[in-house]
Amino acid sequence: MDMQTSLLDRLFDAGLLIDTGVDGLYGRSGAFEDVIQRFEGLISAFGSSSPSEVIRFPPGMNRSHFEGSGYMKSFPQLAGTVHSFCGCELDHVNLLQCMAEGNDWTKDQKATDIVLTPAACYPLYPTIAKRGPLPAGGGLFDLQSYCFRHEPSKDPARMQLFRMREYVRMGTPDEVMAFRQQWMERGQELIAAVQLPVEIDVANDPFFGRAGKMLANNQRDQALKFELLIPVTSTAKKTACLSFNYHQDHFGKTWGLTTSDGAVAHTACVGFGLERIALALFAHHGLDTADWPAPVRKALWG
């Protein structure tokens, strides 16, 4: 049995995760949720020195905003859409008959105006662009959302529905690069406070297709993305638990985001995979939080 399945089975047996019958889709126990809540408090404590606007978006976003973001150009394999029944009474009868016969009852479902949020920051950019130019000094935003990516796996650190906490910085290139560097340092300090082993490495997003390989290479060559890696289900293939991303002017141009002087705004973000960090804590410190090292308990529970 591989290490990933072993950890997943232990989490199920301990009741920390709840099997739904779909890989990457799990219920969470109160103990699991408590760890996430405590870790989010630690994130907030580390971010409190830089005042930010708190925004919480739902796990679904405006389909037109999603289409305008360009996500489907780069990551069509990860996207999730929301479809619903929009037929008449006869269509409903046919749907029930299909279900009774074990046939595909989803083929006549229609796309709604909602898609599943792929990253916590995606609804933010059109929202802020509607306000007009950024104030002097740019903007800093504190986000959290459930996100969806279609990549079913037995690896519990690769969930299909998961939560992402983000800080997003908008402003001049110097402002957003300084923000990213600051959080690369803060992120390591934060993870050290809960006694997890880490390393930071340059990374790339999972762009789709042949053209995606070129985009991934360019992203790495320009050092636009770094990840903080922690061994969770494998010591050989570590898990990205934090990411530090410089988008350059991509979202600024896409949504018409401008600085106070009218220049195209640049953006950067730090993202925390909350379930992944909780899994790392359970994997390294044990499945009973009462037995975790005293410094870790103090950092999380005070």
Outline the structure in words.
The chain is of the alpha+beta class and 302 residues long. The chain is 39% helix and 25% strand. It has two domains: 3-80 and 118-301, Bira Bifunctional Protein, Domain 2 (BirA Bifunctional Protein, domain 2), CATH 3.30.930.10; 84-115, no CATH class. The protein is globular, with a radius of gyration of 21 Å. It starts with a helix and ends with a helix. Keywords: Ligase. It is an enzyme of class 6 (ligase).
Tally of separate domains: 2
How confident overall, as mean pLDDT?
95
- Tally the helices: 11
| Separation, N- and C-terminal Cα atoms | 38 Å
Backbone CA Rg: 21 Å
Q: What would the CATH topology of the largest domain be?
A: BirA Bifunctional Protein, domain 2
Q: How many strand units?
A: 12
Q: What is the ordering of alpha helices and beta strands? A: HEEHEEHHEHEHEEHEHEEHEHH
CATH architectural group of the largest domain: 2-Layer Sandwich
- Helical coverage, percent range: 25-40%
**In terms of quaternary structure, what is this?**
single chain
User: Could you say which structural class the secondary elements and strand pairing correspond to?
Assistant: alpha+beta
- Label the overall shape: globular
Based on the model shown, name its key terms.
2 domains, 302 residues, alpha+beta, 12 strands
